[in-house]
Amino acid sequence: MAATDGAITDWVPAAFQDAARNLAKEAVRRFVKGDQVVGLGSGPMAAAIVRQMAEVKNKKTLECVATSYQIKLEAQCSGLKIVDEGRIPDMDVVFDGADEIDSNLDMIKGGGGALLKEKIVHSAAKKIVIAAESDKFVPAFSWPVPIEVHPFAFSAVRKKLEEAGGRPRQRMLKEGYPYVTENGNFVLDTKFDSISGAASREMELKNIAGVLEVGLFTRHADVYYKAKSDGTFETIEP
After folding, report:
1. Which residues does 50 contact at the CB level (< 8 Å), separation at least 6?
2. 100 near 144, Cβ under 8 Å?
3. Across-strand partners of 227?
4. Is-catalytic flag, 63?
5. pLDDT attached to residue 13
6. How confident is the model at residue 1 (pLDDT cuts 50, 70, 90)?
7. Residue 143 pairs with which residues in a beta bridge?
8. What's phi and psi for 202, nearest 5 deg?
9. How much of the chain exceeds pLDDT 90, in percent?
10. Per-residue pLDDT band at 7 (split at 50, 70, 90)
11. pLDDT value at position 14?
12. Are 177 and 130 in contact (CB under 8 A)?
């Protein structure tokens, strides 16, 4: 069963819906060949690409690994075959979004809470394709860095983050309960005054015992699609 047209409206901001459809067609035409293992990241533009994959004639030959329950449902509605994590080592391409992309093409991800699984598929995929709205491309990061933390280490990690110059804040649900990832962990959204070296900061934070993953993504994509509000998109290839 194919997803309805309403699905893209649910995901993509109104100003970028035409651009999302246009870049999704280009991304699928260029990178989806059939007989592939495809990683499905998160974000409205990644969801638009998933919807476009529903139109691929040989989609039954694709094996898709979803990084969140939400994108898994989108893929299933698009008639895509979902496989388990055992296929990750053979992943050909991953389609994903980003919360922020700086001038060095480093990224902050994890606003949706799927940073651990997203980092895993990024590390395994032969190619990475990122699609995001134009306002997510910024000169320097302004978002806090999501950090996934094991509950047992929560207090210790928060103190270490403060010692490292961060201002960690536990992610909460609007009802007042702690946000819990699909992996059963907490998220500390941590603000830094500046991040001059994303790769070194990423490794520094990951070395804190109890930190499971850091929302700094420093492996650069093969292609970045920048969606614009006039319905067009820009292709950036490092």
Report:
1. 40, 71, 74, 75, 78, 80, 95
2. no
3. 133, 233
4. no
5. 79
6. very low
7. none
8. -60, -50
9. 90
10. very low
11. 85
12. no
The Cα–Cα gap between 136 and 218 comes to: 16
pLDDT surpassing 70 at residue 5? no
227, 131 contact by CB (below 8 A): yes
pLDDT for the residue numbered 6? 41
pTM over 0.90: yes
- Nearest CA to 204 out of 24, 45, 196, 231 is that of 196
Among residues 63, 74, 118, 213, the one annotated as catalytic is 118
* Structural domains of the chain ordered from first start: 6-138+219-236 (3.40.50.1360), 145-215 (3.30.70.260)
* Both tokens assigned to 226: 């920048």
Residue 171 DSSP label = -
**183-208 burial, b for 16+ CB within 10 Å, e for fewer?**
eebbbbbbebeebeebeebbeebeeb
Return d(Cα 232, Cα 154) in angstroms, integer. Answer: 43
Confidence band, pLDDT 50/70/90 cuts, at residue 143: very high
